[in-house]
């Protein structure tokens, strides 16, 4: 009869355990997010770049798919496998997953084996004890369940941070790749100018011999060649460093010998004028903060439950005997103990209450961090989109300036032949042309960089990492 009462009591308590436990529903988390002081001050403009009603799947990514090349995809795949930061992050995520599993162990009974011995110094008797002991804390208020779910939320937050790291590394590889291509184009451009200048130097040397040019003309062009060779060395060194960066990102030895193409593939598709708002909600960093909010919710719940009484049930099965008994008689008198205990905090100088206040403050902090992440995401999209439209205009103006400078150089060369201009004017105009052509290369590089930035700001779906 007594045994039935105990079993029935345990069953009843189990059914009614986790009385104070609650899941953070979407409505609950939305209400928490609405309490943010950061978003309370933000006013959405009428010409907002985001479309609230558009579906995230409706956005075409052709404008970033234009950047794909077989070599870039190969480099990104290598980076995903061999990048040092990703390998380390994988182990960190594995540790968090194991910690999540540990956090759930408090929901179940713990069973331990006990073996001890003691000596009676008066009678010289030795007492031995063998037992199996079980202990179970009934999770009445959901303290242990909340701890388990806090660990689960921490894992998913870390998982999204890991995804963000993969996306960031892939974006860095893509940027380093295009930076190296730009360096290759700049090297080719400067080497072309050096060849032209050396040919001009040869012509001026011949003309000097026949009296149609002077020593100043030859000196001007020689000085220009020296300047261009120094400039070329600077660009080559920068390009080697960009190769080393690319090699390091893909897990290779940074020797600076990775070969890439020496031209930009044409970009055919324009940037969309607006973007679906749901894209921002799927960003890895925002998803990570969302799970941090859930974690904070569980931790507040856990801290509140810690202030309430806790109920423990324990039992042990074993035996005891002395050295005057035979070893066989050690198990002839088994002992079975079943008991329970109730522990309630009475005085701890306000420690548990302050802990609840700390957890509430941490919850408010993570909500503001979530709002800040959303605000930064909006800024990144707005900035990248604005930069891209500006770069497109700058490229158009720069190309017009290059055409005019080239025409001007042709006219100057004709004037030199009839004696109305000189080599100094020609060299100055050629240097202006080189600066504009180098600037055009930088603008085309920036266009590709900003496309990658915009793609990352929108959540980096279906291209770099999924």
UniProtKB/TrEMBL annotation:
Belongs to the outer membrane factor (OMF) (TC 1.B.17) family. One of its GO terms (molecular function) is efflux transmembrane transporter activity. Gene3D superfamilies: Outer membrane efflux proteins (OEP) (2.20.200.10). This is TolC family protein. It comes from the Bacteria.
């Amino acid at each position: 009869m007594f045994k039935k009462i105990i079993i029935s009591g345990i069953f009843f308590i189990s059914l009614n355990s986790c009385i104070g436990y609650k899941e953070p529903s979407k409505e609950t988390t939305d209400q928490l997010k609405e309490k943010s002081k950061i978003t309370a001050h933000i006013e959405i403009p009428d010409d907002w770049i985001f479309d609230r009603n558009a579906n995230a799947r409706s956005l075409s990514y052709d404008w970033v798919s234009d950047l794909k090349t077989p070599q870039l995809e190969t480099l990104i795949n290598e980076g995903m496998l061999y990048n040092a930061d990703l390998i380390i992050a994988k182990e960190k995520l594995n540790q968090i997953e194991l910690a999540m599993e540990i956090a759930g162990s408090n929901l179940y009974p713990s069973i331990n084996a006990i073996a001890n011995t003691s000596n009676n110094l008066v009678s010289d008797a030795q007492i031995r004890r063998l037992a199996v002991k079980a202990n179970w804390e009934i999770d009445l208020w959901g303290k242990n369940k909340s701890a388990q779910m806090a660990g689960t939320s921490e894992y998913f937050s870390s998982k999204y941070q890991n995804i963000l790291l993969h996306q960031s590394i892939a974006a860095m590889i893509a940027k380093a790749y295009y930076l190296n291509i730009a360096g290759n184009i700049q090297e080719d451009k400067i080497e072309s100018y050096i060849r032209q200048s050396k040919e001009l130097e040869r012509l001026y040397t011949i003309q000097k011999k026949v009296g149609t040019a002077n020593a100043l003309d030859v000196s001007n062009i020689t000085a220009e060649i020296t300047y261009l060779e120094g400039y070329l060395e600077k660009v080559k060194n920068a390009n080697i460093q960009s190769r080393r960066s690319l090699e390091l990102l893909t897990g290779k030895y940074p020797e600076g010998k990775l070969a890439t193409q020496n031209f930009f593939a044409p970009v055919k598709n324009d940037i969309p004028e607006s973007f679906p708002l749901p894209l921002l909600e799927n960003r890895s960093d925002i998803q990570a903060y969302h799970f941090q909010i859930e974690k904070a919710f569980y931790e507040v719940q856990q801290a509140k439950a810690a202030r309430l009484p806790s109920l423990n049930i324990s039992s042990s099965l074993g035996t005891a005997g002395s050295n005057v008994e035979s070893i066989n008689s050690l198990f002839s008198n088994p002992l079975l103990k079943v008991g329970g205990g109730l522990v309630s905090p009475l005085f701890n100088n306000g420690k548990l209450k302050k802990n609840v206040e700390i957890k509430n403050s941490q919850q408010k902090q993570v909500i503001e961090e979530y709002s800040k992440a959303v605000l930064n995401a909006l800024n990144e999209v707005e900035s990248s989109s604005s930069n891209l439209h500006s770069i497109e205009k700058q490229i158009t103006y720069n190309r017009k300036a290059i055409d005019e400078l080239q025409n001007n150089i042709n006219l100057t060369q004709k004037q030199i032949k009839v004696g109305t201009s000189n080599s100094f004017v020609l060299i100055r105009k050629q240097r202006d042309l080189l600066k504009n052509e180098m600037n055009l290369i930088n603008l085309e590089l920036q266009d590709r960089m900003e496309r990658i930035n915009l793609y990352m700001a929108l959540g980096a779906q279906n291209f770099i990492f999924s």
